[in-house]
Design goal:
single chain, about 280 residues, mainly beta, Thrombin, subunit H, 6-stranded antiparallel barrel, 4 helices, 15 strands, about 30% strand
């Protein structure tokens, strides 16, 4: 049984309560946003919980088992709260979500007290999001789902390391350029001034360091004649003069690893037989 603060526990004994649902979103970039299903704005722990956002939640059941408990939230899209562009652009990917009940007439000043003056319903992270013209529906996945993931290293012919990580160990300093966009074709294609040859940044990564797309990243599909083509379009319009940080790519093959003089750190098994060998049988 949950232990609650005396004020909230006494309030729950009443025939009519004044409970409202709040949800707190913490993005991976550190931005914290608060929302409430009531019509009164609340301030809890320095976070403003906005009212009248069209918030609603699906039914939710919880027990003391490790079964995955998911919840679906529905709310209106808004430029000053959660916008379609930010959702599509990935700013809310893996955001932490805490949903709890409070007495809106006497809300807690902080969530960091014991016993709490709020009722925590679920903590989890943002899962699948679907959009309509003016609303979004988001699945909140409980942390129990993390226990369903298989953990281990797979055997693959290609390299499993991320280019430049602790397993790869390649220093990317000399393979990274800070560039300025000179012309824009669309939200996937733009041109810079660079002394790098064709294909240098292919399968690499571009990070926008200014403009409306500041902080967004994308994998490079091609780099030909100083023109970048990204795998996915940026969520906001790309403007001339925007700065980017571009990192060279790696094809995760033995040949690519040798070209970077890093074959000793190749994280793959290129000589294991493939599925076609097993399906075709072996010669006696």
């Amino acid at each position: 049984m949950k232990s609650l603060a005396t004020a909230l526990s006494s309030h729950l004994q009443r025939e009519n309560t004044k409970l409202t649902t709040c949800w707190r979103v913490t993005r991976t970039d550190g931005l914290v946003q608060g929302f409430t299903s009531g019509d009164k704005q609340l301030v809890i722990g320095g976070v403003i919980y906005k009212a009248s956002t069209g918030f609603s939640a699906s039914a939710f059941a919880q027990d003391n088992s490790l079964a995955v408990r998911n919840l679906e939230l529905n709310s209106a899209l808004s430029d000053d709260s959660i916008s379609e562009t930010d959702l599509v652009g990935g700013r809310y990917d893996y955001a932490r979500v805490d949903i709890f009940l409070v007495n809106w007439e006497n809300p807690p000043t902080t969530l960091l007290v014991d016993p709490p003056n709020h009722i925590l319903m679920i903590s989890g992270f943002l899962g699948e999001v679907s959009l309509t013209d003016v609303r979004y529906s988001a699945e909140i996945r409980s942390f129990a789902q993390l226990l369903q993931q298989k953990i281990g290293t797979l055997t693959t012919q290609g390299c499993r390391a991320v280019f430049g990580d602790s397993k790869c160990t390649k220093d990317l300093t000399a393979l990274t350029d800070n560039l300025t966009i000179n012309s824009v074709t669309n939200n996937r294609q733009f041109t810079v001034s660079s002394g790098r040859g064709n294909g240098f940044f292919e399968l690499g990564e571009v990070t926008f360091t200014s403009g409306e797309n500041n902080g967004f990243k994308s994998t490079v599909l091609s780099f030909i004649g100083n023109q970048f083509q990204l795998f996915e379009p940026m969520p906001y319009d790309i403007q001339v003069g925007t700065t980017i940080r571009a990192v060279a790519g790696c094809a995760k093959t033995v040949g690519a690893c040798k070209s970077y003089s890093n074959i000793l750190n190749y994280q793959g098994e290129p000589h294991i037989p493939g599925e076609d060998r097993f399906l075709g049988g072996f010669e006696g």
